[in-house]
Amino acid sequence: AWIEKLVVEGFKSYGKGRVEIPLGPGFIGIVGPNGAGKSNIGDAISFALGLATAKTLRAKNLSYLIYSKDGEASQYAYVEVHFKNEGTFPIEEDKLILSRKVDKEGRSVFRINGTVVRERDLRDFLARTGLYESAYNIVLQGDVIRFLKMTPVERRKLIEEVA
Amino acid sequence: AWIEKLVVEGFKSYGKGRVEIPLGPGFIGIVGPNGAGKSNIGDAISFALGLATAKTLRAKNLSYLIYSKDGEASQYAYVEVHFKNEGTFPIEEDKLILSRKVDKEGRSVFRINGTVVRERDLRDFLARTGLYESAYNIVLQGDVIRFLKMTPVERRKLIEEVA
Amino acid sequence: KLSAFNTAFDSINEGLKRVFAELSPGGRAYMEIENPQDPFSGGINLVVKPKGKEVQYIDAISGGEKTLVALALIFAIQDYRPSPFYYFDEVDAHLDEVNARRIGELIRKRSEKAQFIVVTLREVLASYADRLIGVSIRSGVSRVFPVKNFFAEASSG
Amino acid sequence: KLSAFNTAFDSINEGLKRVFAELSPGGRAYMEIENPQDPFSGGINLVVKPKGKEVQYIDAISGGEKTLVALALIFAIQDYRPSPFYYFDEVDAHLDEVNARRIGELIRKRSEKAQFIVVTLREVLASYADRLIGVSIRSGVSRVFPVKNFFAEASSG
Ligand SMILES: Nc1ncnc2c1ncn2[C@@H]1O[C@H](COP(=O)(O)OP(=O)(O)OP(=O)(O)O)[C@@H](O)[C@H]1O
Ligand SMILES: Nc1ncnc2c1ncn2[C@@H]1O[C@H](COP(=O)(O)OP(=O)(O)OP(=O)(O)O)[C@@H](O)[C@H]1O
Ligand SMILES: [Mg+2]
Ligand SMILES: [Mg+2]
CA-to-CA distance for C71 and C105, rounded, in angstroms? Predict the structure, then answer.
């Protein structure tokens, strides 16, 4: 399985309109100048999958994720993560869309293929496919050495989670 | 004023013998592969000037700064920082040598031009020349954004110190 | 539960040793259970021995060496319990050119089994990618577009 | 004491605004005293407005933008109360090529007034130096030597 594309609306620096960010299988390099919006792509993925807190998304609270600029602002931030399913996810379809919308009050709505789910249900669903709460597969900017900074007990819990 | 050279003995990866590290005025670039010993040069300077703790020197305690390798180890770590004095330091001589030696018990001896001083005297001496305890002039690896991570009160204290 | 843990631990530990030795020739890295009799009463330590040196207090190793240990651990977990995708943001920030190439090689090989989405500011790592996605910003709004070669886009700030 | 503080604050703040505008054209950065009536009862906030955007929560700006703000502040303090030397370890780790060149230029100019000892893994920043010192390690022992050009030495790991 892999992420085919993201669809974002009002998410961080991606403006008000609906924007498609194509990804796809293999080794995808994301390049561009400082401040362009590269890390915001990783934030969109972590956000939609429920794998991050406001803090790790560099937001004071979730409403800070909503696109805003002098004079204009979105009403919500919305992200869809489109997966190609090749048997990794325990569902019939060969496509999986996980989405999350957060409004100005910081309330979130999670969906799996359009169906509203609770955050913890999403988390259980993902854990069965190698997408754990510890999110060892997501290395945010400046954070690669977090595995070294962990306490021994935290490290044991990481191994326990994947065991 | 500038640092003309360092002389180190038994300090971190620089081995047992006496090693001279030439520096000099202007813009000096320090280059080399990962693990070569580049950051250890900054550690030597911070160590000798009393501007760092064991933690910021990446040592469990000060005795960890002493060169050691399977089978052989130094008895102490010693660093001299040789400054050219062009009126910056309130002394007669046109050369200033600050040195520090730490032994296996973690005890330090600080000297200014050969005379033993207490750490706090060194600190006062340095503060008069723009070398403050907050060490805003020393940016360790990965630490440049510490000025942004400071609390507002810490930032005010930094300004107070230079005021 | 204990046996599941031990199986995972041993397998990931072997992976860590193997991958780190590949990335840092002559160096060694491995994990140690604090209380082997009762793993859950303690934690897991990370032990590193760079080439030519004895076991180092993990904080003392260099920035680049720390990055290699961390990536080796991630790849070792991937070999045991793969994730469908990996997202790496500027993991090459503290790597010299030789190590950046080794990581680029390793990601390329492993991208046959998983998707790797890798943000980078350096041409070295970008040169191993199958495809490049450029990101730019104008009037405070980001956009993305396909990129053929790194230098056209990557730093036209 | 209050007047010494205010003089320092105003001067450093003007420096920060000026240097940051140079590094990030169109962007603005400045400091704000929380309680202007009684500065010592509160702290000092750092406010950043990148080009084309409104004031940002400082954590939200990008990694490269954070580096530029931090360096601008250091240079602003240098203009007010210079240190005899500056030691910068891999400050270009999160800078794109354009910004690394701007910082290289700025350090070179300012190295007429202070010594800058700059550790870097990138040829871009090294190219602005007056002299290069190479560091290498063999059998666990580091040594230093003069270097004529970056590529001969910098990443022969
Ligand atoms: N809610 C928001 N509305 C508008 N812009 C935002 C919002 N949140 C963040 N941004 C902007 O997004 C930009 C940061 O984007 P990002 O961190 O993705 O950059 P980057 O490409 O990773 O840069 P670097 O290479 O420096 O890490 C910042 O300039 C920030 O102002
Ligand atoms: N007391 C000690 N005795 C021997 N070697 C030591 C000691 N303390 C640290 N070292 C070694 O010094 C090396 C790190 O050096 P340093 O951090 O200066 O590297 P670097 O050139 O900055 O690398 P990078 O580019 O990855 O940051 C480590 O490999 C570490 O093992
Ligand atoms: Mg980024
Ligand atoms: Mg270093």
Answer: 13
Q: How far is CA D157 from CA B21, B35, C96, in A?
A: 21, 9, 8
**Span from the CA of C64 to the centroid of ligand 4 (angstroms):** 7
Kindly tell me the burial class for residue C122, based on how many C-beta atoms sit within 10 Å of its own C-beta (0-12, 13-18, 19 or more): buried
Q: What is the pLDDT along chain A (163 residues), one digit of tens a residue?
A: 999 999 999 999 999 999 999 999 999 999 999 999 999 999 999 999 999 999 999 999 999 999 998 888 999 999 999 999 998 999 999 999 999 999 999 999 999 999 999 999 999 999 988 899 899 999 999 999 999 999 999 999 999 999 8
- Best mutation site among D103, D117, D127, D156 for testing chain B: the one with the most B CBs within 10 Å? D117
* Exposed/middle/buried for residue A17 (C-beta within 10 Å: 0-12, 13-18, 19+): exposed
Cβ contact D137–B139 (<8 Å): no
CB D28 within 8 A of CB D48: yes
Two structure tokens written together for B21:
């590290």
Residue for token digits 């060490």? B135
Distance CA B163, CA D32 (A): 16
- The residue in chain D having the minimum alpha-carbon distance to the alpha carbon of residue A143 is D63
Residue identified by tokens 């190698």 is: A130
Q: By a Cβ cutoff of 8 Å, what residues of chain B touch chain C?
A: 12-13, 33-36, 38-39, 58-60, 64, 68-70, 141-142
CB atoms within 10 A of CB B71: 6
CA C74/CA C17 separation, integer angstroms: 12
Write the DSSP symbol of residue C56: B
- Please state, in angstroms and rounded to a whole number, the distance separating the CA atoms of residues D129 and D117: 9
